[in-house]
């Protein structure tokens, strides 16, 4: 098995690679060409993912005044997440066996092809309907599955351990800036390009123009991926096994013997359950409860979460730097709980208590505490494993996180049924999510990173 074939050779290879790149590692992050290559490449990829996914979510929401039970956002969320659950561990194996920088470049070429298929799916929307666009949604998820372990696993190969928190924070900030722009752009494109046909039904065929925007972004991202310094394979002698399609033996052994790391993965997965339910909840909050007609304004609400995460990433790495990582996580947990409870309140008659601007501020604040929560956990999970299995560890982390998002899809549909059956508005789902944070606040404590 691949995990059993590791030994002094891979470790020596990594050591030799580190020695060869020592001079580059000494450069500061902001003057490092590889950092900018990675940052821009993943930024454009995240932009495309979120533009397309938000388009699918907005198209899955019933029109204002229609039966809210017809909302299928949860199933779209689950479909996008399914490849992560099926192939994340395999993607982690590939990122250990082969150069992560090469995998990143190949993934960007694949992204160009997928975005061109999206153009075709929208041009053929009259005949294919959602079958074509949802197939592309699955493929976008598959592309991101393969990209993730290389993207995160390459950070320890490009930067020193003391630079990792800052590198993670900056990458996280750029990722969520891409989310803001992608989500808001999706709303703008839907408002501009979707018109009613002769029967009064929305005609989505002109959204091919939006997919063409994604193709241009994918081409640019492919070019910037060549700026990333070529890295050596962490474990070139690794042999694929059935375990590489799930959780490999080496990772199972590591997690069994490292309970703090196991707990961190479980908590991270729970965080993504909550995050996966929040996004469709915010979309339907805007369209159904706040009665927002323009999809652009609804998407701005979702973008508010990402704005908050950018601010929170700065807080986690600058303002709160002197706090122990475990205290940052606890602060983030309590902050998310309070803001989710506040977002859940409504007035008699079902109108949201905070209104549009209050909800936007509440979502920004929730995002801030979410970043304070997840950044130290992410750094811990990257730093803890041995170098030769970091790729598979990142793949396992992605697997766990997207199991969470996959669960979030049907869980959102369940929460929606519960809310409507007892006559509560959709904002009550925020209360249900707040309850999920209580065990984390009581039981989970992140150890100090060695």
Q: Which strand order do you get reading across the main beta sheet?
A: 1-2
CATH C-level class is: Mainly Alpha
Helix content: over 70%
Structural class: mainly alpha
Measured distance between first and last alpha carbons: 29 Å
Oligomeric state of shown chains: single chain
Mean pLDDT across the residues is: 81
Rounded to an integer, what's the Rg over CA atoms?
22 Å
Largest sheet: 2 strands, antiparallel
Overall domain count: 1
Name given to the CATH architecture: Up-down Bundle
Q: What name does the CATH topology carry?
A: Growth Hormone, Chain: A
What's the count of strands? Answer: 2
| Shape call | globular
CATH homologous superfamily classification? MFS general substrate transporter like domains
Strand fraction equals: under 5%
Note the total helix count.
17
Low-confidence stretches: 1-26
H/E series: HHHHHHHHHEEHHHHHHHH
In short:
The chain is mainly α and 450 residues long. The chain has helices spanning 8-20, 22-26, 33-60, 73-97, 100-123, 125-128, 130-153, 155-158, 164-193, 208-225, 249-257, 259-289, 295-319, 325-344, 355-383, 390-421, 429-443; strands at residues 195-196, 202-203.
């Amino acid at each position: 098995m691949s995990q059993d074939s590791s030994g002094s050779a891979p470790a020596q290879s990594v050591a030799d690679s580190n020695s060869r790149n020592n001079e580059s590692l000494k450069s500061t992050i902001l003057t490092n060409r590889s950092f900018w290559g990675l940052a821009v490449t993943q930024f454009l990829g995240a932009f495309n993912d979120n533009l397309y996914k938000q388009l699918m979510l907005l198209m899955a929401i019933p029109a204002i005044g229609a039966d809210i039970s017809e909302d299928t956002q949860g199933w779209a969320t689950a479909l996008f997440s399914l490849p992560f659950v099926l192939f994340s561990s395999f993607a982690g194996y590939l990122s250990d066996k082969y150069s992560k920088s090469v995998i990143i470049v190949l993934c960007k070429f694949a992204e160009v092809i997928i975005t061109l298929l999206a153009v075709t799916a929208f041009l053929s929307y009259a005949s294919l309907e959602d079958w074509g666009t949802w197939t592309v949604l699955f493929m976008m998820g598959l592309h991101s599955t393969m990209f993730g372990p290389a993207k995160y696993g390459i950070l320890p190969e490009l930067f020193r351990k003391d630079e990792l928190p800052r590198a993670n924070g900056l990458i996280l900030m750029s990722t969520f800036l891409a989310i803001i722009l992608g989500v808001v752009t999706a709303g703008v494109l839907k408002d501009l390009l979707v018109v009613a046909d002769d029967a009064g039904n929305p005609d989505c065929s002109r959204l091919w123009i939006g997919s063409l925007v994604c193709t241009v972004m994918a081409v640019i991202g492919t070019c910037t991926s060549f700026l990333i310094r070529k890295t050596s394979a962490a474990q070139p002698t690794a042999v694929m096994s059935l375990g590489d399609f799930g959780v490999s033996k080496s990772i199972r052994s590591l997690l069994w013997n490292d309970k703090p790391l196991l707990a961190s993965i479980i908590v991270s997965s729970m965080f993504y359950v909550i995050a996966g339910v929040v996004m469709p909840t915010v979309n339907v909050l805007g369209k159904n409860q706040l009665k927002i007609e323009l999809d652009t304004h609804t998407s701005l609400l979702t973008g508010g979460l990402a704005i908050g995460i950018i601010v929170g990433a700065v807080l986690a790495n600058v303002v709160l730097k002197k706090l122990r990582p475990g205290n940052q996580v606890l602060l983030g947990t309590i902050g998310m709980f309070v803001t989710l409870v506040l977002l859940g309140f409504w007035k008699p008659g079902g109108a949201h208590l905070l209104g549009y601007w209050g909800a936007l501020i509440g979502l920004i604040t929730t995002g801030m505490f979410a970043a304070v929560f997840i950044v130290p956990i992410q750094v811990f999970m990257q730093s803890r494993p041995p170098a030769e299995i970091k790729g598979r560890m990142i793949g396992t982390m992605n697997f766990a996180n997207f199991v969470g998002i996959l669960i979030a899809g049907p869980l959102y549909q369940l929460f929606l049924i519960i809310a409507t059956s007892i006559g509560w508005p959709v904002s009550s789902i925020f209360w249900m999510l707040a309850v999920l944070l209580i065990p984390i606040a009581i039981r989970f404590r992140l150890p100090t990173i060695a």
